[in-house]
């Protein structure tokens, strides 16, 4: 019997009872074709490849990450909790050394869900990777965690959640936001005033193929991971960079995905996007699983694969070479900028307009951060939607100093509820989650 070099856990959750519409790209067939391929190829018969059943995430898992407006059951379903629970199942098995690596092949996806959630964005209601990450911190005391997002769409939700967290490295490789939803993820987006350098964006031009993806892995992602020294590496394993994907414009292939996985060596992979249900997902997922298990993936190939047809242009190649140099230059300056911010600023403001494309909600958000010399800083968020719902939320970080803890409590205690429909306190230092309404 074939023996896996690395014991690898798999969780499948197709979410039969959840869909945006019967013909929507994000539907259960995304995983059903993959399951069929995995059975057909005998992947589950390999010694060391183990199938696991998903647990269900809890509301406490949600509340470590999100402010759900007006409450959790208004924005998520049981399927979302099982999807996040599947990611938790794999991560727990890795932490308890029942497997060395794992892959949560679950839906609904999550990486567009931000800290404040009024509805669905980019098919995402809650951020399943962030819920998993914060569970690992609560359960196992992990500190430094890296999330490498290889979905074609920028993981703007994950970026938002960890924008001010210097202990979470978020690296996103995606199609240039000038050409694709959600229109963000530019390489000058590096993190908040106390966490610059913990966010790294690599926006690739349309038409990028295997050469470009693997170059940025080698030249940018792996060196920064080595510098950051995470205790665990999570891969948001979106597969919509594939050359057959119907809603993107990239030229990646199954062999490329497998090689990327082999280079990255993630502890946990979590499925995100990927909408070429028959032409890509079965082959890409098999390649990723074999690479995780340390097995030969050289024979995994799409029926219509032709490397010459999808080879990137010389202009794309030159652009990516220049981009990698610029990103590394930016990254090298971040520590100095953070030190300057801590000395020169007391508070930092950020104002944004956020569109929930799935639910057609427009949100205006005002963020205020204490630029603390001793911790990442307490954060307040004033959020108003075009439907008239107005909230005030306070986030106290895990390593908050006493001054930031006291200020966060003061902001929450003194909020004028005549001006807001609801107020929230997310106190990660003391594991508290409070809410009050007018």
General description of the model:
The chain has helices spanning 29-40, 59-63, 78-95, 128-140, 156-161, 210-228, 254-264, 281-293, 314-344, 402-413, and strands spanning 3-13, 47-52, 67-68, 101-106, 116-117, 145-149, 168-175, 199-204, 232-237, 268-271, 347-356, 361-370, 379-385, 390-396, 422-427, 432-437. It has 438 residues and is an alpha/beta fold. α1 (29-40) packs across α8, α6 (210-228) packs parallel to α9 (314-344) and α7 (254-264) packs parallel to α8. It starts with a strand and ends with a strand. The model has no long low-confidence stretch (mean pLDDT 94).
SSE topology:
Elements: E1 3-13, H1 29-40, E2 47-52, H2 59-63, E3 67-68, H3 78-95, E4 101-106, E5 116-117, H4 128-140, E6 145-149, H5 156-161, E7 168-175, E8 199-204, H6 210-228, E9 232-237, H7 254-264, E10 268-271, H8 281-293, H9 314-344, E11 347-356, E12 361-370, E13 379-385, E14 390-396, H10 402-413, E15 422-427, E16 432-437
Parallel strand pairs: 1-2, 1-4, 3-5, 4-10, 6-7, 6-9, 7-8, 9-10, 14-15
Antiparallel strand pairs: 11-12, 12-13, 13-14, 15-16
Helix pairs in contact: 1-8, 3-4, 6-7, 6-9, 7-8
């Amino acid at each position: 019997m074939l023996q896996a070099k690395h014991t690898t856990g798999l969780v499948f959750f197709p979410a039969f009872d959840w869909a945006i519409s019967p013909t929507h790209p994000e539907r259960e067939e995304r995983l059903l074709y993959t399951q069929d391929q995995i059975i057909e190829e005998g992947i589950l018969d390999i010694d060391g490849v183990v199938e696991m059943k998903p647990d269900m995430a809890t509301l406490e898992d949600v509340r470590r990450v999100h402010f759900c407006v007006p409450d959790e059951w208004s924005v998520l379903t049981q399927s979302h909790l099982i999807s996040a629970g599947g990611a938790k199942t794999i991560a727990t098995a890795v932490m308890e050394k029942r497997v060395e690596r794992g892959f949560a092949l679950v839906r609904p996806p999550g990486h567009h869900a931000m800290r404040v959630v009024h509805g669905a964005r980019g098919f995402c209601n809650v951020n399943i990777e962030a819920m998993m990450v914060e569970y690992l911190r609560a359960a196992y005391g992990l500190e430094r965690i890296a999330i490498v997002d290889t979905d074609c769409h920028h993981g703007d939700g994950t970026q938002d959640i960890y924008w001010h967290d210097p202990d979470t490295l978020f690296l996103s490789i995606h199609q240039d936001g000038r050409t694709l939803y959600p229109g963000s993820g530019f390489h000058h987006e590096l993190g908040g005033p106390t966490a610059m350098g913990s966010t790294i964006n690599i926006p690739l031009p349309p038409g990028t193929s295997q050469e470009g993806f693997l170059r940025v892995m080698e030249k940018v992602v792996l060196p920064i991971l080595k510098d950051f020294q995470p205790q665990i590496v999570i891969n948001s394993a979106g597969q919509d960079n594939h050359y057959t994907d119907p809603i993107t414009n990239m030229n990646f292939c199954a062999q490329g995905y497998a090689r990327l996985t082999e280079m990255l060596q993630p502890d946990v992979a979590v499925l995100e996007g990927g909408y070429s249900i028959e032409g890509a997902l079965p082959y890409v997922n098999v390649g990723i699983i074999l690479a995780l298990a340390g097995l030969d993936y050289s024979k995994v190939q799409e029926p219509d694969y032709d490397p010459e047809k999808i080879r990137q242009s010389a202009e794309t190649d030159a652009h990516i070479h220049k981009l990698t140099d610029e990103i590394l230059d930016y990254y090298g300056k971040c520590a100095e900028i953070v030190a300057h911010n801590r000395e020169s600023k007391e508070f930092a403001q950020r104002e944004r307009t956020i569109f929930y494309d799935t639910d057609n909600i427009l949100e205006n958000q005002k963020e205020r951060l204490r630029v603390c010399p001793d911790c990442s800083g307490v954060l307040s968020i004033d959020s108003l939607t075009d439907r008239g719902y107005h909230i005030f939320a306070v986030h106290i970080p895990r390593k908050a100093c006493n001054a930031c803890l006291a200020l966060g409590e003061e902001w929450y205690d003194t909020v004028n509820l005549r001006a807001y429909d609801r107020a929230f306190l997310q106190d990660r230092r003391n594991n508290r989650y409070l809410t009050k309404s007018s």
